[in-house]
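Annex B. Sample input.
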Amino acid sequence: MQLRYAFRLYPDAGQQIALAKAFGCARVVFNDVVRAREDARKAEQPFPTAGQLSVRLITEAKRTAERSWLGEVSAVVLQQSLRDADTAYRNFFASLKGTRKGPRTGPPRFKSRKDARQSIRFTANARWNITGSGRLSLPKIGEVKVKWSRTLPTTPTSVTVIKDAAGRYVASFVIDTDSAADAARMPETDRTIGIDLGLTLPHARLRSRGGTPIAVLSDGTKIDSPRFLRRAEKKLKKAQKELSRKQKGSKNRAKARLKVARAHAKVTDARREFHHQLSTKLISENQGIAVEDLSVAGLARTKLAKSVHDAGWSSFIGMLEYKAERYGRTLVTIGRFTPTSQTCSTCGVKDGPKPLNVREWTCTACGTVHDRDTNAAINVKTAAGLAVTACGAPVRPGAIPAQREETGSHGFPTEPRAA
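Annex B, continued. Sample output.
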């Protein structure tokens, strides 16, 4: 399986200029591909192939006065940008046909130099390398300083250099991992666990009980939500107010925008680190894990929208999925309409829906007093059908390890700092 390992880059002034040129050239090639295909569509002509576009928009364009500056950057960067545009069109057509999973995607759009995120990709044939002093040597850019937080397990197949909205530079390496070796790293266990993801109403009475749990386990453990966004709201509000008062197009506005982006990046990084640590802990301690298939998009349209986004359920479940596959664990997802909060985990009687402010209830059939979240987590585990065999291995009829799409080379790290 493929994973991304990301590290901070610290280019000097000259290298930042070279990277800006590479970002711009890659953006121009992408826009030229979109424009060429749009012109062909309006003229009711067949789409030009990737090979034809490569010759016309890269090879021949370098010989013209208007595009001669394309020769100042690595040709691999331009070819990868052309490939990205081709992939975007393939995804769009697959989405129209219904053969692509997930929400429907729109056609590729022109990229802007003002986009918050800029990126370029170098494959193996670009002759990039990691020097003996630990710097990342990139063609026509130079040896860039890297902050290595850990060692790479194998030789990377490609590297993507990213500049995010906060002005940070990141090198994202694509690594092929050994599934057998990864599974051997995990301790043997026969434990199984059910996880109930949810939120409680943030009023004073509930806060006095110790916070709002982001997850409750079937063994009764409650994991409180750090609420990173809520805690940073005051600082974010102040930074956003300062940005709104700056004149558009001024340098002070650009500085204020960067300040807002850095504040948001700090919240995002803290939430991601928390998700990594929690998901790694659950995967290492349990052989089988059961979760609910929540409709995050639907919950984000309710009065709890901000709390839902602050919890980051989708990101957390995604980490559980790929780590379960990587380390040989079993992740089972049950349907979102399973009445886990309405069913008694002791006798199995369905006791009907209950408002969110009801945190404890008594079963009318057997008289058992239930904690709402713990009872739901037990029902999630039961509905998943997780069981333990005589040899101690958890099994579930028909279950397979959770699948995950192949990792690309965009974005931030998908691995925790300490796996």
